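Predicting structure from sequence has reshaped protein science. With that in mind, we have picked out one protein's residues alongside their backbone shape tokens:
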Amino acid sequence: MNTEVTKSKIISSLFWKFMERGGVQGIQFVVSIVLARILSPEEFGKLTLIAIFITISGVLVQGGFNTALIQKKDADEVDLYSVFYLNLVLSSILYFALFFTAPFLGLLFEDPQLIILLRVLSLSLFFGAFNSIQNVIVQRNMEFKKLFFSSLGAIMISGPVGIVMAYTGFGIWALIGQHLTNQLVITIILWMVVNWRPKLLFSLNKVKRLFSFGWKILVSGLIDTLYNNLRGLMIGKLFSPAMLGFYNRGEQFPSVIIININGSIQSVMLPALALNQDDRPKVKSMMRRSIVTSSFIIFPMMVGLAVIAEPLVKILLTEKWLPAVPFLQIFCASYALWPIHTANLQAINALGRSDIFLKLEIIKKIVGVIILIITIPFGVYALALGVLAGGIISSFINAYPNLKLLNYSFLEQWKDIIPSLIHSLIMGACVYSIQFFGVPLLLTVMLQITVGIIVYIGLAIIYKNECFTYLQLTGKEFLKEKKRVSKIRLGRM
């Protein structure tokens, strides 16, 4: 495969990944806003609490082996069959573990309702096991168009289910019903569009080889998930489910943007980097492009969202959710660092250095736990600030190995993204000043968004931002390539 074809395929994959993450998650976000206006912060807090245990179990089911299958160049059908059956066994074991330990959760948080909620929501583990190999195949072949249609179909069905249940008085069960319906429909559609079916084949030797790489990713993912959800458990236990609902809702706004944009880029970059893992200069070039592009798009969004947080929450969620505003602003600053985190870690994984990946996770989590212990006595907002402090420190830790692996230092990375950061801060100052105009709330937000876009793009044009120029040229090349392919197809008809 030549370089031009590879570039075209990467751009095409990015387009469909953006469509899946941006379009589909955008609809999911709208659904969650409707549900938040109907349901209470306490009900969202309860869902967040039990979802922590499902998320941790999900990492155990899919965490390491799926990444190992994507990274392994010569993965064959027996590898896929073996991991599929292993995931089914693990999901069964974990489901029954959660089923029988649910009463302890209800006792710990003094809420008997959590028992039945956990037992029902845990059924989603089986859906994750059933569609795990389809997800691997899609990512290996960079066929993200299939993920888009499966996710779109799922939200178009599950969204109305959740909203109707909420309006008809089902309370928290509306959230449970919406989640399970979504996972079920995704699984059904992926089995329809991905031409893979399991056979009665299993190789313990194949599993062992994958485990030699995957266990480090699995442990890393488990440590990361436990750490990321530890604060949620602490807030739910030491404060209240309602406060956990505010914390979670404040995090959701910036996380939707990060998942859509940075997550899309990194989902495509892992298989692309893995294909070129033997060419270190090319891996560095691709990683640099990933960091620069992600930062150029994410920085202005995070700064802008932090500035308009209060009026936005009033308009979308109503005033009952205003305590979520400080969390939203703190998490905007924290998530702005994600392009550096994920690009560095994806490069390390693509090079097959899961040993380094695991060491980094252990170091970061030790630092994070220390910060957590220090911030607990100062309240829930201090816990959120601790996440930001840990993110800043982690950006140094994640970048350090790539100085040796790719000759790409932390200082060089920041030199690449500093223009976008400066332009974003200038834009943020302009947007913030609009609130003093004394116009109605909705008009204020609309003006802020419009001015923010104009100022940021204007600065990129005036100062000839390298990433902005690259995106323009890449877009033109992509459209030109699409036209050329269309002409060839028409000529064959």
Remarks:
- The CA atoms of residues 438 and 460 lie 29 Å apart.
